[in-house]
Amino acid sequence: MSQPVARKRWQIVDGVLLLDKPGGLSSNDALQKARRLFSAAKAGHTGTLDPMATGLLPLCFGEATKFSNRLLDADKTYLATMLLGVSTSTGDAEGEIIRQAPVMAEPAAIHAVCAGFLGEIEQVPPMYSALKHQGKALYEYARQGVEIAREARRVTIYALEVKRISGAEVDILVRCSKGTYIRTLAEDIGNALGCGAHLTALRRTAIGPLTLEGAFTLDALNELPEDARGPLLAPVDSLLGNLPAVQLDAAQTASFLHGQAVPQMLETGEYRIYGETFVGLGRADGEGLLQPVRLIASRT
């Protein structure tokens, strides 16, 4: 007679896992696999990566989930490979080839065209995206062969460096604002060169203050005993590393943790707040008061 399967024991885990996501896995599937490895009772991610893409996917456990949305607006950095001369239905290697053209551009022309995409540009979001139209994701319409009119969006390309040119393959390093579609950028570069292009590989190397340095793969985590995984988590406040820090005294910390504003003459803006440890996110009004925005629950 078979033994009953033991139910998973979930536990309180607080911190941020810098995951190096493998290709072929959705962000949610990666989250669920990592959550089980840490037996984390509460988990969430900070924005998705396409299944084809690899690289940095910060995953939040416990109290860190309170701040997961802070990275949605953060700048991202990607290393991308595009293939010139071949256009696909999805803008990446997962789509069907819809057009091919000879690649006549010399390296100097490729560098020049890429430089032309620096700064604020307009992008038309791809049909194969999770953007909603009348409550339905665009990719659902695309799978049915339905084309939906999309308005161009303004995004910013802060850096675009050509790293390698090998025949029709071009590697580019891109640092961009939120909402930028690298697939669309590759297509637009290809169109500007007169031959079309699609994305064949995409790796995210940074998001906000977080980088791949210190990131772990699922395979590496799986090889470790569970009690050795917890120390690998980054602290909750790593999600706010781009904000200035403010230190409160004991009395101010107690008031702040009770949801009360405390006197602090600071410039208007958001701050990481510390007592003996990190206590949460605050906003200064520029007139001498610091208001709690998001607080860490005490673990007793």
Automatic annotation (TrEMBL):
<dbReference type="GO" id="GO:1990481">
    <property type="term" value="P:mRNA pseudouridine synthesis"/>
</dbReference>
<feature type="domain" description="tRNA pseudouridylate synthase B C-terminal">
    <location>
        <begin position="183"/>
        <end position="240"/>
    </location>
</feature>
<keyword id="KW-0413">Isomerase</keyword>
<dbReference type="InterPro" id="IPR036974">
    <property type="entry name" value="PUA_sf"/>
</dbReference>
<dbReference type="Pfam" id="PF01509">
    <property type="entry name" value="TruB_N"/>
</dbReference>
<feature type="active site" description="Nucleophile">
    <location>
        <position position="50"/>
    </location>
</feature>
<dbReference type="GO" id="GO:0160148">
    <property type="term" value="F:tRNA pseudouridine(55) synthase activity"/>
</dbReference>
<keyword id="KW-0819">tRNA processing</keyword>
<dbReference type="InterPro" id="IPR014780">
    <property type="entry name" value="tRNA_psdUridine_synth_TruB"/>
</dbReference>
<dbReference type="InterPro" id="IPR032819">
    <property type="entry name" value="TruB_C"/>
</dbReference>
<feature type="domain" description="Pseudouridine synthase II N-terminal">
    <location>
        <begin position="35"/>
        <end position="182"/>
    </location>
</feature>
<dbReference type="GO" id="GO:0003723">
    <property type="term" value="F:RNA binding"/>
</dbReference>
<dbReference type="Pfam" id="PF16198">
    <property type="entry name" value="TruB_C_2"/>
</dbReference>
<dbReference type="InterPro" id="IPR020103">
    <property type="entry name" value="PsdUridine_synth_cat_dom_sf"/>
</dbReference>
<comment type="function">
    <text>Responsible for synthesis of pseudouridine from uracil-55 in the psi GC loop of transfer RNAs.</text>
</comment>
<protein>
    <recommendedName>
        <fullName>tRNA pseudouridine synthase B</fullName>
        <ecNumber>5.4.99.25</ecNumber>
    </recommendedName>
</protein>
<dbReference type="InterPro" id="IPR015240">
    <property type="entry name" value="tRNA_sdUridine_synth_fam1_C"/>
</dbReference>
<comment type="similarity">
    <text>Belongs to the pseudouridine synthase TruB family. Type 1 subfamily.</text>
</comment>
<feature type="domain" description="tRNA pseudouridine synthase II TruB subfamily 1 C-terminal">
    <location>
        <begin position="244"/>
        <end position="296"/>
    </location>
</feature>
<dbReference type="GO" id="GO:0031119">
    <property type="term" value="P:tRNA pseudouridine synthesis"/>
</dbReference>
<dbReference type="InterPro" id="IPR002501">
    <property type="entry name" value="PsdUridine_synth_N"/>
</dbReference>
<dbReference type="InterPro" id="IPR015947">
    <property type="entry name" value="PUA-like_sf"/>
</dbReference>
<dbReference type="Pfam" id="PF09157">
    <property type="entry name" value="TruB-C_2"/>
</dbReference>
